[in-house]
Specification:
The chain is of the alpha+beta class. It folds into 2 domains: 4-100, Helix Hairpins; 116-422, BirA Bifunctional Protein, domain 2 (2-Layer Sandwich). It has 12 helices and 16 strands. The chain has helices at residues 4-9, 11-21, 28-58, 67-100, 138-144, 150-157, 166-185, 199-205, 229-235, 291-311, 358-363, 392-398, and strands spanning 120-125, 189-192, 196-197, 217-218, 223-225, 241-243, 249-258, 277-287, 316-320, 332-340, 345-356, 366-368, 375-377, 379-388, 406-407, 421-422. A hairpin with a 4-residue loop joins β4 and β5 (223-225). α3 packs antiparallel against α4 (67-100) and α8 (199-205) packs across α9 (229-235). It is elongated and about 110 Å long. 37% of the residues are buried.
Length: 427
């Protein structure tokens, strides 16, 4: 959420930001006019309420002859006040709805463009493998090594679900342990969080009102399934006023996650790339309201995820996401994409975002500045630590051997019992 005072004082800047992000359905002039109307109605309602209270208080001291007129005037003022309060409530509801749909303004450093075609590759790291045999895709590798029950689980749980087993299930957990240890060593508090949420945190995080069709809802319990630990961590300290010396707060959140993938019809229907339930370790940062500070943490989060991909010995590229592709909450965003041999392209494994104060205004999370004692909204940032089973796809395809086994990189071996290869291959 943006500050309405900032919107009023920077109308043209906001219009430009909305255009860059593709939010053409928000009329800033109408929003400012609505805000002005609400301000006037609040002033008028307060004046009417004060006048009515004065009349009510004067009834006791009034003479018998004066009282009927005073009571009649008080009643008329009451009716006028109710009419204005009803109008104010209706206008406030319109205003709140628009403000909840107002995206964050993009960084002046972000590439400008309408969609992912305008994203910019900032760097490529690692060598794309060149096999001296015909490589297999991850589905075939799972089949020959007895690592999955994809057909059987579809009968039980439906499409876009997965069941992996034996060494591959151990590999999935090993990846998370490697990342959690790395984040702990970087000062993060490791925390496991629920996968269910009330509705209010979804507005705080920014899922609502933008992405309702992507969220699982359980009406009998009035509860939602979470698509990321960020959702929970973003509201964990809601409505608190922190002290500046408590910042930054660093969380490494681990949780099962759920997404409907409603907009993914026909995309990646086979295998492990796009499933309804997955496991995710999330990096989440709460820091001071200073763009230099939050941009420093943005680069730090990005560096950690690059280090993860380097530990996994995966070739990858860093994308800077353009204004039209980054989503409502984002100020600036990078995506990391690992090479997937079977698809001959890079696919997203991490998404790294600076949200500035946009989420904090929605959750009312603030801190008291040491320098001037003022209460300010914090900045929040998030980045994937690792998400599985998606990360397993580039991993087993890039590290596959001619016989179908998969090599384990040195940094991951301690989490896999020290083995260099997994799988039985084609004996």
């Amino acid at each position: 959420m943006l500050d309405i005072k900032f919107i009023v004082e920077n109308k043209e800047l906001i219009k430009d930001g909305l255009k860059k992000k593709g939010y053409t359905n928000i009329n800033i002039d109408d929003l400012i006019s609505l805000h002005s109307s609400i301000t006037k109605l609040k002033t008028s309602s307060q004046a009417l309420a004060e006048e009515k209270n004065k009349l009510s208080n004067s009834i006791k001291s009034a003479s018998a002859e004066e009282r009927p007129a005073i009571i009649a005037k008080s009643k008329a003022l009451g009716e006028e006040l109710k009419k204005e309060q009803d109008e104010l409530a209706a206008e406030q509801e319109k205003f709140d709805d628009i403000m909840l749909r107002m995206p964050n303004m993009p960084s002046p450093e972000s590439p400008i463009g309408p969609d992912d075609s305008a994203n910019v590759v900032r760097r490529k790291v690692g060598e794309i493998p060149h096999f001296d045999f015909t490589p297999r895709d991850h589905i075939e590798l799972m089949e020959i090594n007895d690592w999955s029950e994809m057909e059987r689980i579809a009968k039980v749980s439906g499409s876009r679900t997965y069941a992996i087993k034996n060494e591959l299930s151990k590999l999935e957990l090993a990846m998370h342990m490697l990342v959690l240890d790395k984040l702990r060593d970087n000062g993060f508090t490791v925390i496991t969080v629920p996968s269910i949420s009330k509705e209010k945190p979804l507005y705080g995080q920014g899922y609502l009102p933008f992405s309702r069709d992507e969220i699982y809802y359980m009406p009998a319990d009035d509860i939602y399934l979470s698509g990321t630990a960020e959702l929970i961590l973003n509201s964990l300290r809601a409505d608190e006023i922190l002290q500046e010396n408590e910042l930054p707060i660093l969380y490494a959140g681990f949780s099962p996650c759920f997404r409907r993938e409603a907009g993914a019809a026909g995309k990646d229907t086979r295998g492990l790339v796009r499933v309804h339930q997955f496991m995710k370790t999330e990096q989440f940062v709460i820091c001071k309201n200073d763009i230099a500070e939050s941009e420093k943490w943005h680069q730090k989060l990005l560096a950690i995820s690059e280090e993860v991909l380097q530990d996994l010995e995966l070739p990858y590229q860093v994308l800077e996401v353009c204004t039209g592709d980054m989503g409502a909450p984002k100020y600036r965003q990078y995506d990391l994409e690992a090479w997937v041999p079977s698809q001959n392209c890079y696919r997203e494994t991490h998404s790294c975002s600076n949200i500035t104060e946009w989420q904090a205004r929605r959750t009312n999370l603030r801190y008291r500045d040491n320098a001037d004692g003022k209460v300010k909204y914090v900045h929040t940032l998030n980045n994937t630590g690792i998400a599985t089973p998606r990360a397993l796809v580039p991993f087993i395809e890039n590290h596959q051997q001619a016989d179908g086994r998969v090599r384990i990189p040195a940094k991951l071996r301690p989490y896999m019992g020290g083995v260099e290869f997994i799988g039985k291959g084609t004996k």
